[in-house]
Amino acid sequence: MIDCLFCKIVEGEIPSEKVYEDEHFLAFKDINPKAPVHILIIPKEHISRVENLEENQVEMVGRLILLAKDIAHQQRIKNGFRLIFNNGPDAGQAVEHIHLHLLGGRKLTWPPG
Ligand code: AMP
Ligand code: ZN
């Protein structure tokens, strides 16, 4: 059994504020939000990093992005949003289970730090 924070959230062993769930995906509020809307969207399957994605996961990744768009709409984000995958230490990936950050609800600066 992989000792993974987000797998534990999927299993309900660690509580989260869910905003969406289906058979394959879960979306929940980030515990340390960096914007008025900050949601993490994850596949339930444990995949550690974007760099470990494989060809047969293309559809899953596409669905993840479409889901992020639907959640942005559901959250009534106006004027745009940002989607981010952090990959590896230099990008600040703290949790080794793929997660797509959805940020919105304020003007976001560019480039990020
Ligand atoms: P990253 O730095 O890209 O790996 O992002 C990990 C994110 O997970 C951070 O934004 C954290 O605030 C968030 N996080 C950590 N623990 C929890 C938790 N228990 N529930 C919700 N979000 C969490
Ligand atoms: Zn995991």
Description:
The protein is α+β, with helices and mostly antiparallel strands. It has a single domain, classed as HIT-like (HIT family, subunit A). Helices cover about 20% and strands about 20% of the residues. It has 2 helices and 5 strands, in the order αβββαββ. Strands 1-2-3-5-4 form a 5-stranded antiparallel β-sheet, with helices on one face. A hairpin with a 7-residue loop joins strand 2 (about 25-30) and strand 3 (about 35-45). The model has no long low-confidence stretch (mean pLDDT about 95). The site of zinc ion has 6 residues, from helix 1.
Could you provide a short overview of the structure?
The chain is of the alpha+beta class and 113 residues long. The chain has 2 helices and 5 strands; from the N terminus they run αβββαββ.
Which terms summarize this structure?
113 residues, five-stranded antiparallel β-sheet, 5 strands, binds zinc ion, globular, binds adenosine monophosphate
